[in-house]
From TrEMBL:
SUPFAM superfamilies: P-loop containing nucleoside triphosphate hydrolases (SSF52540). Its EC number is 5.6.2.4. ATP binds at residues 50-57. Residues 1-26 are annotated as: Disordered. Belongs to the helicase family. UvrD subfamily. The lineage of its organism: Bacteria, Bacillati, Actinomycetota, Actinomycetes, Micromonosporales. InterPro entries: ATP-dep_DNA_helicase_PcrA, DExx_box_DNA_helicase_dom_sf, DNA_helicase_UvrD-like_C, DNA_helicase_UvrD/REP, P-loop_NTPase, UvrD-like_ATP-bd. One of its GO terms (cellular component) is cytosol. Keywords: ATP-binding, DNA-binding, Helicase, Hydrolase, Isomerase, Nucleotide-binding. Gene3D superfamilies: 1.10.10.160, P-loop containing nucleotide triphosphate hydrolases, PCRA, domain 4. This is ATP-dependent DNA helicase. GO terms for molecular function: 3'-5' DNA helicase activity; ATP binding; DNA binding; hydrolase activity. It is an enzyme of class 5 (isomerase).
Amino acid sequence: MHALFEIPPVQPASSARRPPGSDPDELLRGLNAQQRAAVVHAGSPLLIVAGAGSGKTRVLTHRIAYLLAARDVTPGQIMAITFTNKAAGEMRERVAGLVGPRGRRMWVSTFHSACVRILRAEHEHAGLKSTFSIYDADDSRRLMQLVARELDLDPKRYPARSLAAQVSNLKNELVDESTFTARASGPAERALAEAYSSYQQRLRQAHALDFDDLIMTTVRLLQTFPDVAEHYHRRFRHILVDEYQDTNHAQYVLIKELVGRSPEAPSDLDDVAASAPELLADGAPLGPAELCVVGDADQSIYAFRGATIRNIMEFERDFPDAETILLEQNYRSTQTILNAANRVIERNSERKPKNLWSDSGPGEKIVGYVADNEHDEADWVAKEIDRLVDDEGYKPADVAVFYRTNAQSRVFEDIFIRFGVPYKVVGGVRFYERKEVRDALAYLRAIANPDDVVSVRRILNTPRRGIGERAEACVDALASKENISFGAALERAGEAVGISSRAVKGIGDFTTIMAEVRQMAATEPPEDVLEAVLARSGYLAELEESDDPQDAGRVENLQELVSVAREYTERIQRAAAAGDADEDAGPDPEIEETPSLAGFLEQVALVADADEIPDDDGEQSGVVTMMTLHTAKGLEFPVVFLTGMEDGVFPHMRSMGDKRELEEERRLAYVGITRARQRLYISRAVTRSAWGQPQYNPESRFVPELPSELIDWKRTADAYTSWTRGGVGRGESAQYRGPSSALTNGPKSQALAGKLGLDPKLVGAASEMRQVPSLSPGDRVNHDRHGLGRVVAVQGSGPRAQAQIDFGDQTMWIVLRHAPIQKL
DNA sequence: TTACTACTGTTTTTT
DNA sequence: ACAGTAGTAA
């Protein structure tokens, strides 16, 4: 990506408008008929229904390139919306690869980034303060906690987390607080209404917007100020939306506002607008912008955060003259994998039939494995990856391991480390979610925006400055009495009633440091500001002096954050330089010219993926990628392991009661299956320890939905049953199968369930017996009575295995079978 | 009044 | 095993 910035394509200045490769015919070569139709389609709104692996990204990038090359659209007239910032970056580079550097001068971003840009620009235009904090889910929860405490809501009945989630849903539906307050009935809704309006009030006072606000406020802005809407309407003549099935109501309305609502305008003006927008005088009528959305209802997996497939299902009703193009040919997977995917997804009701096909042949069978427990499952995956690499010519980078929840990655990490399988976990405990990183960012946010309550309160007493709950409450009281922000009240802490002199001194120290660093932030780049505030506040010193070994890692993470800031600064400077050099496109006022603290914070808030999906570096063998099924959307791998195929895990326990949620889980399964190009593995564990206790989980209901003739089972549940208890034979093991678990069936199966799965003693013994051989010298363990220890030696095997363990104060031999011991 | 230790429920998925 | 809470020591 960076290389592209540094090495502009070689071309004579005169041909800059038509660089090699932007010949329209060239752009259409290698596309099938449907793809071509989608690329060249002009005029009416277009819905591209793209099955998994049907080359939808290609169609989108080629369409953009085609607009630029064949239809004389300028890059400034295009707004493309993608699901992640990473996808946006890739799309920009791909278009640039097709039409040259001017392809980078489009708005390609997520909904949230686009809204931030619009809001910032409009705030500046109106002469308002344009620095605002962006609150993520955790910040929102913290703010809601303040609100709930203020309103005296019972934290049991109304936990802040749930209030924040409900408010988020309301905002996604564009229900603002006054509307909701007016219609709220019953105590629960009234409490929510109160919380909602108080929360909004506090957000505004903090000059903060949460993720949902970004969309909602932009929609309101466009709806309330027709001249603003007109401005963007004139500017953006082409709106393209990727992953349309994952848009929520607010995003749908935003799209409508951007496209414009004047279909009655003469359509020939479109052509004028496209070729020479400056010829259109202000006030001349302008038709709607050209809209093109791409999506697949079968891959809608974000209903839990407000996405509605309604948007894609009803597209033709929302935009009456719309056309639809279906892409069914799959260029990614073998027919075996596609058949499996088709058979799973066809179980969903209310679905437009779609049949993926491929001409790449049947390929290998799907490989299945039933492990005794989650360690065995990981063990088998690791061995199989080894085999694929050694015997079948795959690289680790070709392989992906998917699971339903982030917590499941731990076992794989343990085993992969032991086996020496190189891996990378994408997502999970993300860099930006670590305490020290969030603290450091809170300092920066408090510097950029002193009114940001959540950030200020987060770091006010970190490190300890003798400012406790009591003192905070006094300042809060002062703030509401004087009707000023919490940050402003801190400056006048001395006036607070009932505050202790110790706290006043602590607050004085704090405000002095912040004022100093704030001054510095006006001129210095973010990385220097960050280093300064970490040093001045004593935050870094406290970590460095600590003897907790974890804190060394925290210091490293902070250094990492400093280099992220430095990279940001360098990137902005480089982009500014590249912009100057790129005369064809002219200066782009949208591109930020100078690195700023606000810009850095914005990037950090919106670009979640610091842990990037490893790029395929071709030559080197790379690493195995591990991620949740949700993160896997939009990616593809030659080899895919779908793990944890158990009812309760996947589909997740919480979604099994509800038909709609269950269908979403099924779509998630469909997404997982269709990520695989050549090989698909499915695995499950008969027992899995969750929250301390071993749990018996029946086979995922999605497994029997796969055609059994496509699966080659390397190990089945029979192996487990005959191994644990001789008495349980093959026939009865059929009780494992199927969605209706033994729990709900007749008395006979209840007894069986009790015997097999639900008796903790038996299952505990089974998993202990398996865990015994996996302890080896050097392993760290935790003993319920003796605490942390390290294995010195191991003796015996099976139920008689013993280990010599060093607990620091004493070293002892322990019979592992009965020991309350866990491997770390 | 603040700070430290011990305990408890907790985790679905994410821009 | 994590973070937020509750109880206690200073």
